[in-house]
Write a structure and sequence with these properties.
Layout (H helix, E strand, L loop, with lengths): L1 E9 L23 E15 L2 E14 L2 H19 L11 H22 L9 H6 L3
Antiparallel strand pairs: 1-3, 2-3
GO cellular component, one term: membrane
Pfam family, one: Neur_chan_memb
Keywords: Membrane, Receptor, Transmembrane, Transmembrane helix
Amino acid sequence: MSLTIVNAVLCQELDIYTYADGINLNYFSEDGEWEIQRTWNERATYTEGNYEYARVYYYFKLKRKPLYYGLNMILPVLVTALLTVFVFLLPAESGEKIGYCLTVLLAFMVILTLIAADLPTTAANTSLLGRNSLRF
């Protein structure tokens, strides 16, 4: 993922230049969700009417760290799906098949509720887990 920050200034008032190739990250603190792979900047000028503007582009190339989503979203769903298979190992005479299936279904719904609380609220993109659970 790339993030671009743009700053434009009228050249007659203030002409801006890039100082170095990249961005100074001395005061940057590491994030648990994203990793900065590369930073760079570019200077461009353009004319609009009789005025010349200088524009500096700051670019950040980011990479998402997948450990959080793997441990807190994907792993619980996979374990719940694995528990669903164990219903076929229960003998039919025990009468616990329906209770076991309902318990696993309720656990799955709790997991989906916790996952939905962590995701941003939007109607355009929903999680694949929630979309697939509606098919049942």
